[in-house]
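Re: that chain you flagged

S.,

Sorry for the slow reply, it's been a week of failed gels. I finally had a moment to sit down with the sequence you sent. For the record, here it is as I used it:
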Amino acid sequence: MLKIEKLAKTHNRKSFDSSSEPLNRFIKNLARQHADRGISRTFVLIEEDHPKIILGYFTLTICEVIPADIPDPRLQRYPHPIPAAKLVRLAVSLKHQKKGMGKILMIEALRRTIAISENAGLIGIFVDAKDKFAADYYQQYEFIPHENNPLLLFLPIETIRQLFK
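Prediction finished late last night. Pasting the structure tokens below so you have them in one place:
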């Protein structure tokens, strides 16, 4: 059975390989430090039978954005700055890619974004896609690309709530 939990010392970060060196480096060297310092939170997907092996992970943080960075014209009237969540990283190990693990991680990241919005105000979630392939992936989940920067994508909180109804 699959399970998502907060990254802990017991997880084997050193063996994680997603084929992306920046994503590998983050989980191996920085994710726990960022959590300890309150910068971000990383959550890992594991199998309960093998709880040390990381199948994939995502990292969330909170950010503030200026209205011009929001690709939704309805939200550009808000005062500056505007609180939002940010999906900083999402990665699946090479061995588990193309098996729906990314979708499981994305759904959980969006579920946690809703939980944050219920306890602190935010307008949605942003992601900086690393390339066009990643941007296309996020658009499957209705993320809206910024017209001047198609690698900066936004998903309004109302859209996230609708996805879970």
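What I noticed first: The CA atoms of residues 55 and 147 lie 34 Å apart.

Talk soon,
D.
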